[in-house]
Amino acid sequence: MSRSARISILGLLSLIAALLVLPAQDHPKREPLTEGEIIRLLQGGVPSERVESLARDRGLVFGMTPAVERDLRDAGATEALLQTLHEIASKAAPAAPPKPQPTAPASALLVVQTKPGEAQVYMDDIFSGKTSSEGVLKIPNLAPGEHHLRVTLEGYNDFEQHLELAAGETSRYAVMLAAQPVVQPAPATPPGGEIVHFVLDRTLKTPSRATRGVAFSGDSGTLAALGEDGNVRLWRVATGELLKTIPLADQPKWVYCLAYSPDGRWLAVGEGFSKAKIYTGKVELLDAVAGQEVRALTVHHWGVNGVAFSRDGHWLVSGNHDKKVRLLEFPAGTEVRDFEGQSKPVYGVAISPDAQTIASGSWDATVALWDRASGKQLHLLTGHTGGVWSVDFSPEGQHLASASADGSVRIWNVATGECSHTLSGHAGAVMSVAFSPDGKVVASGGTDDTVRLWDAATGQSLETLGAHAGVWQVAFSPDGRYLAAAYADGTVNLWKKQD
């Protein structure tokens, strides 16, 4: 049993035990029951008869409105229990003036709807209940503010999301769970012999809860990593020495992506902010040499999910939660145009080696190819069945790789828009994909705690590099000697190519 499961079970048992202890004769009567306490008892499997007895003993602090009755019935209350609660509520009268209590913000109600139903729901790593067969679970009496939602179901990938709940309001959140693909074991040695082999050189540790991005400088001498704690750390690749830490001054609520300019001077970071349920985002420019934040290049109404520099360093492209792709001149930061044509937020972006074509991967499971100069959409690539997290052009620009939540990587012909290979093997969402500098190998990293290497020409699996946590991003050094991976536990692995 996992640690989080043990915590969830212990927490639920403690709640039930505390509510079911009847007051002793020589002790003052306990506080009346709230609607939330009754709902949690019913969801925890306590019989309605026992809840009825407890309600008669302690009384109720709420009235039986139609909305309350509906919530209790959804939680499993019998008609007999509802009738008893109506009787108790109609007779309830305070025996004495209530004790003054400090003013507290009104609680929030969260309605979670999952597809499929009967999924396990955790709020802040505490088990909150299962959704019904129709996929609905109501979680009352939540404190306003930020919460962490996690949904699990056997045979499906776990879903996690940070939520912002407002005091006194009902928030609704729909979750579409992605089925885990059936994993076919890859042959131990691919036809034609092993092409490449990487061995772990070192693991770089950070205090951050997760590392969201990694990128090499143009000379392959420095590795940058973006931490969820809002810091960018720079290491010397050859020795693993931490060179500097650059804090993000505005303390963004989310950091999503990182890109290194080809000349090694600049770093671009995609950020997201939330205040009073108003979401904003920006592309932040850092001076990698001086080790300091410089300025915001762009500011948007939603978070920035992906950033990429052109090979010549003259262009910077960003993928945004508002479904748009924005093209900036660099380093001026002037926005040239935006591209819009996909129906859901854009995550992965890339610019072709000749800087003529822009690729964007969207959560609507499509990949769009755009002409940089005219803004015209060249192709809309379809075939993935889950959102596209990452895209990367091959060094010669003729092919594009895409990584998807459906557990696959696809290789596309840029000129025709046709899929030449589908790379299957990950047991979960594939979060990142990258071509090696010579174009022979594709690396992918996923939530199944693996980094996989593939033959770019044939789609054949070459090697699986074991990992210790979910992979956010993979990156090759420009000289092809190193491969880096950023992990959900805050660490970075650095592998070295063997001759």
| Radius of gyration of CA atoms, rounded to a whole number | 26 Å
The CATH superfamily of the largest domain is YVTN repeat-like/Quinoprotein amine dehydrogenase
Q: In one word, what is the shape? A: elongated
Number of helices: 5
Give the proportion of residues in helices: 10-25%
The biggest beta sheet, please? 4 strands, antiparallel
Descriptive overview:
The structure is a single chain. The chain is mainly beta and 499 residues long. The protein has three domains: 3-91, no CATH class; 108-176, Sandwich (Immunoglobulin-like); 198-497, Methylamine Dehydrogenase, Chain H. It contains five helices and 35 strands. The chain has helices at 3-20, 35-43, 48-58, 66-75, 79-91; strands at 108-115, 120-123, 126-130, 136-142, 145-152, 159-165, 170-176, 198-204, 211-216, 222-227, 231-236, 242-247, 254-260, 266-275, 278-287, 292-300, 304-309, 315-320, 324-329, 335-340, 346-351, 357-362, 367-371, 377-381, 388-393, 399-404, 408-413, 419-424, 430-435, 441-446, 450-455, 461-466, 471-476, 482-487, 492-497. The strands form nine sheets. The chain has a four-stranded antiparallel β-sheet with strand order 3-2-5-6. A four-stranded antiparallel β-sheet has the order 8-35-34-33, with no helix packed on it. α2 (35-43) packs parallel to α4. The radius of gyration is 26 Å and the shape is elongated. The two termini are 43 Å apart. The relative contact order is 0.09. The model is unreliable at 3-10, 17-29 and 182-194 (pLDDT under 50).
